[in-house]
Structure formats: structure tokens, C-alpha cells
Amino acid sequence: MAELRTAGVVDAHRSSSYLLFHHAWKLLLRCHERTPAFVQGVFVQGRSRWHQRRFSHLKITMADGDPICEWILGEGGASKIKRVTPVGGGCINVANRYDTDFGVYFVKTNRDAETSMFEAEAAGLNAMLGTKTIRVPKPRKVGSLPRKGSYIIMEFIEFSFSGGNQADLGRQLARMHKTGTSESGFGFVMDNTIGSTPQPNPWTNDWVDFYREYRLGYQLKLVQQQYRDNDLYEKGQRLLERLPFLLKDLKITPSLLHGDLWSGNVAYDKEGMPVILDPACYYGHNEAEFGMSWCAGFGDPFYKAYFEVLG
Ligand SMILES: Nc1ncnc2c1ncn2[C@@H]1O[C@H](COP(=O)(O)OP(=O)(O)OP(=O)(O)O)[C@@H](O)[C@H]1O
Fold first, then answer.
1. Enzyme catalytic residues
2. CATH of the domain at 135
3. How far is the C-alpha of 135 from the C-alpha of 46, rounded, in Å?
4. What is the reported pTM?
5. Per-residue pLDDT tens over the stretch 168-227
6. Do the Cβ atoms of 173 and 128 come closer than 8 Å?
7. What range does the domain containing 91 cover?
8. Are residues 33 and 91 in the same domain?
9. From CA 97, how far away is CA 87, in angstroms rounded?
């Protein structure tokens, strides 16, 4: 509500409809934890002509203090936000589509996360975009929310309900793995998160060292610290010792990986072309991409097309 108070909604204060809005606002903010823009969308959408006159100044004043609206109505090129609608599907962040007179933006917010979480997501999306091999949403802005938390604004992509061709996905992913190489070794430009679990990505010359220390080893430590599962930890340690033998004589070059490729992060656009979302990117052994394949639903056409490109 601080945004509203500082927004100087002075005449509105006197009307009883404002009081109604005021309480509805509070309720909505509490129920949905949306940004003020969410509420703005609801009310701007449904207002009568009387309200249009009465609240005509609100669109701009309410954006004050709301960095998402400020960006969309500034650098984002829009002069009006027509509607803000929740997008379901994610577990970790709150997602909304912002329909404007300058197109649609997709926005995720998280009341608890530092901006570094979304900065890493943007860095991953930009790295994949840079390969020009597969469609990913273009990130536009990352920032912090007024009191606590952070947000990311990106291109909104309209998905097809009828899905697409898995062979296209396999082929384009293989091209991304082949094109996205790194001269710094295995790792990434910054640490990121997989789900909401931190994922360290320090540059490392050798794949076995990287995978042992910063993937399996790190996760095993979390298992022990957070769940006290010593049995799993011990078994894991034995696997880590054997890793150099299991991967002996393999020549592994760093490939840009999406890093969290399960079915919830794969979609198809209206033209039926694959889109990959919500990455936890790093440079790694290309086959590490299939660590999540147990819940990705990749079939024969996918793998056939993938290995046709990668050999
Ligand atoms: N750029 C986009 N355009 C349109 N819809 C999107 C876009 N990015 C993601 N979505 C949809 O929004 C929903 C939430 O997105 P996403 O999975 O990135 O959220 P999340 O909370 O970070 O996810 P998770 O809980 O899986 O880590 C999903 O249903 C996804 O399909």
C-alpha cells in the first residue's frame, strides 16, 4: 500500500468507491502477493466511464514505485498497460503476462530472491540466444522490488497447445551444444540456481573435477547437511572416487547446456518450433543435459535427430 500512499491518490480518498478499492486492493495484494501492477491491471480493465474520469491519473501515478510498470512504460516502449494476467505452471516464482499497447511482456517476481537469481537466468537465456540455434525468450530487464525480492521481464512467447516435433527439438538442441563452446573450461559466468537450490559454476579445466566437486559432490553435501542422510552421502562418496575411472579416456569438450531440461521447461511456439525456458545454464559434458530426461519425455525421434547432428 505504500505505493498507493506515495502515489498521491488524493481526490480518490474522498470517494466511497475508493474505500472499496482500497480494501479489495489490500485483499488482492495479500492473497496473490502480486505487484501493484497486478491490481492496476484488474481495475484498469474493468473500470466504468465514471471511474475512467475519476481515476484517469492513476495509470501513471500507480506506476510510481513499481519498477516493473516503470520499465514497461519507459524503456519497454509502452504508453499503456492494458491488462495483467497471472500465468500458471511455475512453482518457484509468480508469473504474469503484461498486455500493453506495445505488445506483451512476461514477468516473473519472487518476494524472497536476490536479483542474482534472475540475473543468472538472464545470463543463461542470453548465452543460449547467442548461439542462434533454438528459440528462447529474450530477457529485457532484471531488478529488485521495492521492499524485498526481485523480478525479471522478458519477451512473452505464445505457446501452441498442439505441441511440436521432437525431432526439431533434438536437432536444435544438438546445434546449441555444438555451437555453444567455452574457452574458459567447464562452469559459467556466474553461479545460478536449479529450482531454488544454489548451483556453483566456477570455471574448471577438467570435466571430471567440475562434475565431481560442483555437481555431485555439492549436492551430496546438501543431502547430508539438510537431510542428515549419511547412507546416501557415503554411497555418493564411493561414486565420486570412481568417477575418474568411469569417465577415463573420454575427450569431453565444454558445451553450453540448458541445465534443467525437463518437460516443464520445453514448449512449442505458434509455428510449432521448440522453445526452451527457465534454464540453469553452464558449460558441461553435452550428455549431462540428459540428467533430467527421466521427466522430459524425449522419444526416439528426439535422440535420433540429436545424435545425427552430434554424431
Ligand atoms: N517467455 C515466456 N512467455 C510465455 N510464457 C512463459 C514464458 N516463460 C515461461 N512461461 C510460462 O510461465 C510459467 C512459469 O514459468 P517458469 O517455469 O519459468 O516459472 P518458475 O516459477 O521459474 O518455474 P519452476 O518452478 O519450474 O522453476 C510456465 O507455465 C511457462 O510455460
1. 260
2. 3.30.200.20
3. 35
4. 0.82
5. 999 999 999 999 999 999 999 999 999 989 999 999 999 999 999 999 999 999 999 999
6. no
7. 44-155
8. no
9. 7
